[in-house]
Design goal:
By secondary structure, the protein is of the alpha+beta class. The protein folds into three domains: 125 residues, ATPase, nucleotide binding domain (Nucleotidyltransferase, domain 5), CATH 3.30.420.40; 100 residues, Nucleotidyltransferase, domain 5 (2-Layer Sandwich), CATH 3.30.420; 65 residues, Actin, Chain A, domain 4, CATH 3.90.640.10. It is 36% helix and 28% strand. It has eleven helices and 18 strands. Strand 2 and strand 3 form a beta hairpin. Helix 6 crosses helix 7 and helix 8 crosses helix 10. It starts with a helix and ends in a 14-residue tail after the last helix. The mean pLDDT is 88.
Length: 349
């Protein structure tokens, strides 16, 4: 009876709880929140606990700029919870923000997880959402939500392939008749690209840069394919700390240098697609050859990645509309008909 009453005060929602960004889709309103999955934490030694200072965009601005008493952390790593207490507070904050601090808010929530998440990791996510005030929590795999969000014919007897590249994981899945025929996820994605750039600049430029700078490089001049015309390639001026002198210094990185830095990670993503194609039944493979590979997630926005996959597989690969919001939109579509999607939704207890 209590839950029945609460649903009239709550807006059911779908949460794409990503390593880099969290998106919330509210039933009837669409995507209402898109903020970095970052929390600024201060250690209270007197009380022996952590205090939350900022969440989301405000906390991300503090990344790499905090004093010793404050830490800007990402409570999720590789698509799953790494710090349970901080993740719980982050989810609470986002839910309250969406419901405008309504004390009676107790929404039904669908949360997306990578297929490589263990049962323990899935349970931790569900418990964090329960503690944040949800009246009911369902878990859905990101690849399923991505395929629905991309508008692929997942309910028909046709093979559809989706490649979802997020911040922490790259997930590839083949779907048919509303179910997953093949699914695989590797913990190599957008965050690994940032680490590759940081390591390349450190080794080749003797310059130490932060995660935010690496992300800007990836967005501005990052590419999966080595440029052919090196005389007119893109370049970018960056600043960091000189490893020899310890003083601030600036240097220039080029498109071809970043392509070289990202080559190994791009090869892993392409190899993941190859393994999926090798494991797909022949009839569904023929369908994929016609429909192509749908690319979703923020990592798929890396320039030239679709061309690299086309060159390696010989199949059409294309970016969906609004790839960063695709998973959230797909899980949001499930909210409108929970009963129809019960076969792909999980609850851990």
């Amino acid at each position: 009876m209590y839950n029945w009453l609460l649903k009239f005060f709550s807006a059911d929602m779908a949460i794409d709880l990503g390593t880099a960004n969290t998106l919330i889709y509210v039933k009837g309103r669409g995507i209402v929140l898109n903020e970095p999955s970052v929390v600024a934490v201060a250690e209270n030694r007197l009380l022996g606990r952590k205090e939350i200072l900022a969440v989301g965009a405000e906390a991300k601005q503090m990344f790499g700029r905090t004093p010793g008493s404050i830490t800007a952390v990402r409570p999720l790593r590789d698509g799953v919870i790494a710090d349970y207490d901080v993740a719980e507070e982050m989810i609470k904050y986002f839910i309250r923000k969406v419901h405008q601090k309504n004390p009676l808010a107790a929404p039904l929530i669908i949360i997306c997880v990578p297929s490589c998440a263990t049962q323990v990791e899935r349970r931790a996510i569900q418990e964090a959402a329960d503690a944040a005030g949800a009246r009911k929590v369902y878990i859905v795999e990101e690849s399923t939500a991505a395929a629905i969000g991309a508008g692929l014919p997942v309910d028909k007897p046709v093979g559809s392939m989706v490649l979802d590249i997020g911040g922490g994981t790259t997930e590839v899945a083949v779907m048919s008749l509303g179910g997953i025929v093949y699914s695989n996820a590797v913990r190599t994605a957008g965050d690994q690209m940032d680490e590759d750039i940081i390591e390349y600049v450190r080794k080749n430029k003797n310059l130490l840069i932060g995660e935010n700078t690496a992300e800007e490089i990836k967005k501005n001049i990052g590419t999966a394919i080595m440029p052919k015309d090196k005389e007119h390639e893109l370049s970018m001026k960056i600043k960091g700390r000189d490893l020899l002198s310890g003083t601030p210094r600036e240097t220039i990185v080029t498109e071809s240098q970043i392509a070289s830095a990202l080559a190994q990670t791009v090869a892993k993503i392409v190899n993941t697609v190859h393994l999926a194609l090798e494991s797909t039944p022949p009839e569904l493979s023929a369908d994929i050859a016609d429909l192509g590979i749908a690319m979703t997630g923020g990592g798929s926005l890396l320039r030239g990645l679709d061309a690299a996959i086309r060159a390696a597989t010989g199949l059409p690969a294309f970016l969906v509309d609004n790839p960063m919001a695709c998973v959230a939109c797909g899980s949001g579509k499930m909210l409108s008909n929970i009963d129809k999607n019960k076969h792909v939704l999980q609850t851990m207890y």
